Structure formats: C-alpha cells, structure tokens
Amino acid sequence: MIKLTRYGAFAGILALAGCSTMAQAPATSNVSPQDLAFITTAYQLVHFDLAACAYVQKGGLTPTVVPVANKICADAATYAPQIQEQAKANGVTLPSALPLELKSQLVALSYHPSPNLSVAFLRDEISSHESALAVFQDEARNGTAPQFKQVAIQTKPLVEQNLELLRKAMPEGMGE
Questions:
Q1: What digits encode the pLDDT tens for the residues 114-134?
Q2: Which are the contacts of 123, defined by CB distance < 8 A and separation ≥ 6?
Q3: Does 9 fall in a domain?
Q4: 93 is in which domain, residue-wise?
Q5: Distance from C-alpha of 97 to C-alpha of 103, rounded to nearest angstrom
Q6: Could you give the angle at which helices 117-142 and 146-169 cross, rounded to 10 degrees?
Q7: d(CA 25, CA 88)
Q8: Is 2 a domain residue?
C-alpha cells in the first residue's frame, strides 16, 4: 500500500509538470517580465510554504523547529490571498503549479525519515527563502509596476526575518 501511495504521489506530480509554472499577463498589460518574475516567485514561495506546512504540521519536527515552522506557515497563509489580490488587480494569471524543483523538494520532504524532518524542512525553506529574497530585492530596485514594487519593498523585511529565523533554527553542524 505504501509503495502504491508513493507511486501515485509521484505520478500526480509528473502529471502537473505540464501545467504553467510562470505568471502570465495579457499582451496589452503594462506588467513587465521583471514584474511577472516577482509575482511568480512570491506565489511560489507562499505555496511551497503552505504545501510543506501541510506535511510538517502533522508532527515529526523537533520542539525547537515547531515555532519557526508555525511562523512560516502563518505568514504564508496571510500572504497567499494578498498575492492573489495583487495579481487579479493587475490582470495577471498566477501559475497553476510549482516548478519541478520545488515539487521535488516536497516529495523528498514527505518521504524523509522522521528524525531528519526538521533539518530537511529547514534546508528546503532556507533555499526557497534565499531564492525569493534575491527576486524581491531585484523587484524593489528594478520593478516597473508600482503595486508589485511596493509589495516587494514591504515584504522583503519579512522574508529576511524569516530567513534569519530558519538559519538560527538549523542545528549546529547540519549546515545548509
């Protein structure tokens, strides 16, 4: 039964591989590729966090990682509707799927042995937050859509704060 479930989950992820992983705007829109990259990344970070949280909140995290995970999860739940509102207000269609790299991380996380779940979660979250932070910084400097640029400027400190929390929660010697 477990093997069938694993294969089913893997097949489901492969089936989604053909879905759109990038935000799209109509040709008549004034949303630039830079801005689309930002909203795509913001969407991916939040939805990766929500998917990872759905798994790790079932248990298995070390007590020191639980409050960090809870904060990441709460922030993602808060920002998901805000990203959707921004996209809708700008005529942007959000991605229908996460990119293969993030899907792979979720599959690995869901089958990772329990004693290492905290480290796997922290590593995945650190990686996704570092990538997102680079895009948020770029949007804050170079974005052309004022609404997206403002969101990047306002949200960047939270991403930096969460990244620092994740790094501090990583057990010594486990490194990124």
A1: 558 899 999 999 999 999 999
A2: 170, 176
A3: no
A4: 32-169
A5: 9
A6: 150
A7: 10
A8: no
pLDDT tens digits for 130-154?
999 999 999 999 999 898 999 999 9
Cα–Cα distance for residue pair 120/115, rounded to 1 Å: 10
Q: Which two tokens stand for residue 163?
A: 């990244």
Q: Per the domain annotation, does 174 fall within a domain?
A: no
Amino acid at 28: T
CATH at 120: 1.20.1260.10
The region that residue 59 occupies, defined by phi over 0 for left and psi between -120 and 50 for alpha, beta otherwise, is left
Six-digit token string for 92: 């942007």
CA distance 173 to 5: 34
What is the residue whose two structure tokens read 């990203």? 83
| CA–CA gap between residue 106 and residue 89 (Å, rounded) | 30
**b/e for 3-42, b at 16 or more Cβ within 10 A?**
eeeeeeeeeebeeeeeeebbbbbeeeeebeebbbbbbbbb
What tokens appear for 76 in the block? 């993602």
End-to-end C-alpha distance for the chain, whole angstroms: 34
| pTM listed for this prediction | 0.82
